[in-house]
Write a structure and sequence with these properties.
388 residues, alpha+beta, Aminopeptidase, 2 domains, 43% helix, 23% strand, globular
């Protein structure tokens, strides 16, 4: 059988891409072949990342940057390249070879200049991560530095801890009693089981079940559930099996009499895990099945010697996970100037971006308040109907 030249080139590139994951400066699922490669093929054009690769003299890959080149923001000051693309925005770290990081970033600066990019936005970077440190070093060579546009703290789990010590030290006696009561009350309704997807099992039934559960809740009503858009369905149906085949998918569920009432999945790279999506049966909200699932998976991760840290990927002060995981990791969004942009123009760009973010944050707060108001009105209407 003769392999077409274009297919052979794709196979060589993908093999080099997979090899880069193992020697990258910082683990990151979003810049991998399974994630960014899939996104490049199935996402709509306005959300599809451009894949920038830096090659070494031996033909191996030294860098992989999935970036979206925006056309509208900041015009006429210049175009933006951003790590924000797709619908699972939880990390903006690219793949950079640990032995060539500074040179790779210099190549990136030169590469995006050709496309008229004035600055690069990296979202959701760990503030203590090696990529941000190297980015600062690379820009310092040109007398520049990245500007932090946002800063927050995300709940994480130190998976090296003893489960009993974690349960005792991070939970007050009152909260421990409350979680035990909820689990007991839920178990009174049927057989309660916690399950983890095995390496040899088929991921697709778990995924389809997750999407149905998520779509049945408020995310389905808001149109943000994975099942609501054809491209998000296509993305997870291709990406998750690719991660699962490499043993890089974490999938858990809580079941009641064989029916899934809470489910969550995430990705594993080296000694870290990122739990990116969770769904639960909102009819059982008073038992907090999502919280019970987080407690169970916490103990599973702490029993797994491969995992050092688990990132919740949740917003700051998330009402569910922040009360279960007490450790925090500082995250930042940064705007990186480019050597050809000029300090005056970049100062204007940063000011426009800051104003844009503030306006967007106010709009999000208004939408969230309206959503909460509708939920209250819906509950009150339900109580009124029961009373009559």
């Amino acid at each position: 059988m003769i392999t077409p030249p274009e297919l052979a080139r794709d196979m060589e590139r993908n093999a080099a891409w997979l090899a880069l994951e193992d020697c990258a400066l910082e683990p990151t699922p979003v810049a991998t072949w399974a994630f960014a490669g899939t996104a490049n093929e199935v996402l709509p054009e306005h959300r599809r990342p451009t894949l920038l690769f830096m090659e070494g003299s031996d033909g191996g890959l030294l860098g992989a940057f999935p970036l979206l080149f925006e056309h509208r923001r900041w015009r006429p000051l210049g175009r933006l390249a951003t790590s924000l693309w797709g619908d699972m925005d939880f990390l903006g770290v690219p793949l950079v070879h640990s032995d060539h990081a500074i040179d790779v970033l210099q190549d990136l600066f030169a590469m995006v200049r050709v496309s008229g990019i004035a600055a690069v936005e990296f979202r959701h970077l760990p503030a203590d991560g090696p990529f941000l440190a190297v980015l600062r070093q690379a820009l310092a060579r040109h007398g520049l530095r990245p500007v932090v546009m946002d800063r927050w703290r995300r709940a994480v789990l130190d998976a090296t801890r003893d489960p009993q010590a974690w349960w005792r030290e991070d939970m007050s006696a009152r909260h421990r009693g409350e979680w035990r009561r909820r689990k007991r009350r839920l178990a009174e309704r049927g057989a309660l089981t916690f399950e983890r997807l095995e390496r040899t099992a088929d991921v697709m039934p778990w995924l389809e079940e997750f999407m149905a559960l998520e779509a049945a809740g408020w995310k389905g009503e808001a149109g943000t559930a994975l099942a609501c858009q054809p491209h998000t369905r296509a993305f997870v149906r291709r990406a998750l099996p690719a991660f699962h085949a490499r043993g890089a998918l974490a999938f858990f569920r809580l079941r009641l009499d064989g029916r899934t009432i809470a489910s969550t999945f995430g990705f594993i790279q080296r000694d870290m895990a990122w739990m990116v999506k969770i769904a639960f049966d909102e009819r059982l909200r008073r038992f907090s099945p999502g919280g019970l699932l987080v407690i169970e998976l916490s103990e599973a991760f702490m029993a797994d010697p491969r995992i050092r840290l688990v990132d919740s990927c949740a917003v700051a002060d998330h009402p569910l996970v922040s009360h279960v995981w007490r450790q925090r990791r500082e995250m930042v969004d940064v705007l990186a100037p480019l050597p050809h942009t000029g300090k005056t123009r970049f100062t204007l760009i940063a000011a426009v971006e800051r104003a844009f973010r503030q306006t967007r944050a106010r709009a999000v707060r208004v939408v969230e308040e309206l959503r909460k108001r509708r939920k209250r009105e819906k509950r009150q209407a339900g109580k009124g109907a029961q009373a009559t």
